[in-house]
Amino acid sequence: MPPKKAQKDTSELPLSAKFARCKNTLSMGFVGLPNVGKSTITNLLCGANHAEAANYPFCTIDPNEVQCIVPDQKFKYLVDTWKSPSIIPAALKVVDIAGLIKGASEGAGLGNAFLSHIAAVDGIFHLVRAFESDEIIHVDDSIDPVRDLDTIQSELCLKDQSVMENVVNMEKERVRKDKGLSRAADVPLSETFQSAFDKVNKLLAAQTPVQTGSFTEGEIELIRDWGLITTKPQVYVVNMTKKSFIRKGSKWLPKIKEWVDSHGGGTIIPMSAAFEQEYADLAGDAAAQKAFLDECTAEAAKLGLKGPGFVCKSVIPRMIRAGRDALCLQSFYTMGPKEVRAWTIQRGTLAPQAAGVIHTDFEKGFIKAEVCNFEDFKKLHGGEKSVAKVKEAGKYKQEGKSYVMQDGDICVFMHNVAKGKK
């Protein structure tokens, strides 16, 4: 009998991650009303103009997928140390989903198609507009990000409520088949199912994402199969004017925070697509980019806004990291004279599963992992392209199948080739 496959350790994961699919190729999707800046910011995240950014609703119809390089100082250090010809950083997949409008859950606009696109991603960048512009129309003809948050959250919850209408029938059908009951027989539903069902409906009725609720492990197992949009983690992104971003303030930010806190909480990232676009347009000229940031910081200083909190810098790296954190993703590294590479896994991944990300045979024939922590390598390698001094210091360890991978692990996996090919 083959050995039981190692399972991921999910004990330390947040609730939203426990609802998620167990895979390492997870994606974030931009969700919001039309003309709030989704396509522009998607372009900025990946550093190229992949998505059409136009000033009219539904200019993005098919979801546009981009790969965003993850800012990673550990990886950069390893690259600088080894100077290998092949360099492969970690990336976050981001999907630009067309704008929703009120009534999307009932098919308004292109709602049904767009909601299915949201269902296909694993986490949500919830983008709201907090800037005035005569040139960029708003679907509701006025700026009110709190109203917009209500609109989008309402549509997502309504969509989930429509899914819940079929959940009981699906569960009864499953139980009927498992127990061999006739169509006329009463079908008993478990206490766990009824509890999960009632909790979810209560949250959705209050326009609150399901991922902010409190559930037992048994309830989570059931809910995971229901395919609810609001089980996905959300990162709230506020698109402000350049002026507001430089000043690190907007009349809308306190109201947005109050709304987010009252709807389960979450990360809020204030940003300005206009600021980021100006900065991105100077790409390739480091001196010009620095001058731009210094000029913006000086503008804030003239208003008495000084200190580390008012030093202007791009928030694009923060957004990418926030997306990774929301999906509970982390990196481990392989390094050598031919290649330095960052591999993406979810938190809680065991060593054999991490090996399988490199090649499925590595997981099937897993023997052990030779692991050292990045910080130990940085401190001990003494400028050498080697882990010899790390080994001498006793910081190079051999780990077995139960080892839970840590962010920043540097690994070599030992596997049985013959066993892996079976």
Q: What this model shows, in words?
A:
With 422 residues, the chain is an alpha/beta fold. It has a domain at 329-420: Roll (Ubiquitin-like (UB roll)). Helices cover 41% and strands 17% of the residues. It has 17 helices and twelve strands. It has helices at 15-19, 38-46, 73-82, 111-120, 145-179, 191-205, 217-224, 242-247, 253-262, 273-281, 286-302, 316-326, 351-358, 360-364, 374-380, 388-392, 417-420; strands at 27-31, 64-69, 86-88, 91-96, 123-129, 234-239, 267-271, 329-335, 339-346, 366-373, 397-399, 409-415. A six-stranded mixed beta sheet has the order 2-4-1-5-6-7, with helices on both faces. The chain has a three-stranded mixed beta sheet with strand order 3-9-8, with helices on both faces. Strand 8 and strand 9 (339-346) form a beta hairpin. Helix 5 (145-179) packs antiparallel against helix 6 and helix 6 crosses helix 7 (217-224). It is flat, with a radius of gyration of 24 Å. Residues 48-62 have low confidence and may be disordered.
Mean pLDDT: 85
Which sequence of strands runs across the widest sheet? 2-4-1-5-6-7
- Tell me, what's the shape? flat
Question: What share of the residues does DSSP label as strand, in percent?
Answer: 15-25%
In total, the number of strands is 12
Q: Please give the CATH class of the domain at 329-420.
A: Alpha Beta
Overall CATH architecture of the domain at 329-420:
Roll
